[in-house]
Amino acid sequence: MAPRTALAPDPHGPGGRLQPLDDAGTPLGPPEAVPDLAAAVAAREAADRPRWVWAAADSAYAPLLPRLPDRLARCHDLRLVEPLLLAHEGRFGAPRSLGAAWSRLRGLPVPDDLPEPGLADADDGQDTLFAPDRLQLPPGADPLTAVVAVHAEQQRRIAAIADPAARQRFRLLAAAESAGALVAAEIAHDGLPWRTDVHDRLLTELLGPRPTVPGAQPRRLAELAVELQHALGAKPFNPDSHTQVLRAFAEAGIQLGSTRSWELKGIDHPAAALLIRYKELARIHVAHGWAWQDAWARGGRFRPEYVVGGVVSGRWASRGGGALQIPRILRRAVVADPGWLLVVADAAQLEPRVLAALSQDAGLARTAAGGDLYEALAVTAFQGDRDKAKLGLLGAMYGQTSGDIGPLLNTLRRRYPAAMGYVEAAARTGEDGGTVASRLGRVCPPATAAFLDLTEADTSGEAGGRTARARGRFTRNYVIQASAADWALALLAALRRRLHDLPAAGPADRPHLVFFQHDEVMVHTPANLADEVAAAVAEAAEEARRLVFGDTPVRFPLSTAVVDCYADAK
DNA sequence: TCACCGGGCGCC
DNA sequence: AAAGGGCGCCCGGTGA
């Protein structure tokens, strides 16, 4: 039996080709053409559970999902592993498609990556069956041959990482990133349960009835615009226009530096509160209102389009739909199907815990061994003032220097020298033009060429110094955010495997992931399995801790809720 | 008319 | 005095 199997779908039609591989990527047999790729994949999955090797999940896995009887356990996604390797090798930004990797391997001219498809592409009426081939292979190149060759090369490059521990962590990174590709495709396929009737009711309560003319302003927004105008004694103006708002306030004798809500909150005038409310409601209307519902939440499911590895830190991004920015108030619309429940789990205070584990600061690790890290920190170092403890630690992780934070940072530096030294070293590396990496080896992008050209005289000047400090804040935060993303990906992979292994009557009755947001996961599960799912999440978090951080006293507790409705989770 | 930019704010 | 990291999305405004 083959530990790995390369897979390449035919560009047209349901067939494809397969080839068994060993773990180094060496073929164990000849390529095999199959007329029904889904059936052939399902049969081999049942027999062997190989790690599937493909160019990219969106072209190789997503089209199979509707025709597969069950999920695939493992994959190696060349399109995701390639940029991880390139960055690790100091070649950040090189094209990452299968064709680009293949061309590099063959010494051919390397094609640029195609631009990411945007909303416009999804909306232009094109049949997705005829979407352009995104593999970027040179004419005449055989996709399966390229998949096999590029995979063997990636395995060789991973094996070439000199430090055994770093190599092992990078293997984990590649596996976790690839598991993310499976999860993202499956969430897009299954969708997050979304009650459009509840969403409608919320929108109507907030905005007034749905306008009958598409694009018309909802009643409540129109009313607020008029109330705002009257409160200022102004002529009609557009509250969506920054400049018009500033002018209207100025004419009423209120000088604003901006229209930001935090500035408005300090203005003692009825117009300020009206504008804040207008902006809140307008935001919901334009970003997650009726138009969004029509486009993204039809048929009782919201299908987010995640972009795995879309953020340099390894966080996921989303493409259209705003999956990672759903306003809290709309969580009311996320309701489990009848007989099902939602298990919602989020990692509590993930980033400071990651800092404690990364820096191996014994003192900070002690505060992170129990429940509320900020409370423990406050008791130890801030006379019980939890707000100060939280502010100080966040400031340390983000590189904040403004406000009254200096004394807090000094306290932290005194009490937790290893932790503070860790982030400050990362910041210095960035200020000096260097790169930093996550725990598992995701390397941050280099500074821009313009930055690297700055001389020491430049960076000790005002503008250059600002640029250098901005770069320092980025690398300072990167080591934490990216290592937190490592942990979250490992959690996701471990949880997905556990869910797959839970006993279920059939694939349709199996608990499945429906949402992922940086440090939070949601599983839609038959009600009778909810407790087992909650236990699986906790076990997955513990597994992720062990895999990513090894022997650390730091714990990564989850706050887990079993609910009917997302809004009740916390 | 279109592409791009920055403001502003949603989420972490 | 000000100097908080990462995104996506929509808007108005601007310049080609």
Structure, described:
Keywords: DNA replication, Exonuclease, Hydrolase, Nuclease. Residues 1-33 are annotated as: Disordered. GO terms for molecular function: DNA binding; DNA-directed DNA polymerase activity; exonuclease activity. The chain is an alpha+beta fold. It folds into four domains: 4-190; 196-293, Up-down Bundle (Taq DNA Polymerase, Chain T, domain 4); 303-349 and 485-569, Alpha-Beta Plaits; 351-479, Orthogonal Bundle (DNA polymerase, domain 1). It has helices at residues 37-48, 57-60, 78-88, 98-106, 119-122, 143-159, 164-190, 196-207, 219-232, 242-251, 261-265, 270-288, 290-296, 350-359, 362-367, 373-381, 386-398, 406-415, 417-431, 449-452, 456-460, 462-501, 530-549, and strands spanning 4-9, 16-21, 32-34, 51-54, 74-77, 192-193, 301-302, 306-307, 317-318, 340-347, 512-516, 520-526, 558-563. Strands 3-2-1-4-5 form a five-stranded mixed sheet. Strands 11-12-10-13 form a four-stranded antiparallel sheet. The longest helix has 40 residues, at 462-501. It starts with a strand and ends in a 7-residue tail after the last strand. Residues 118-132 have low confidence and may be disordered. The structure holds a DNA duplex (12 and 16 nucleotides).
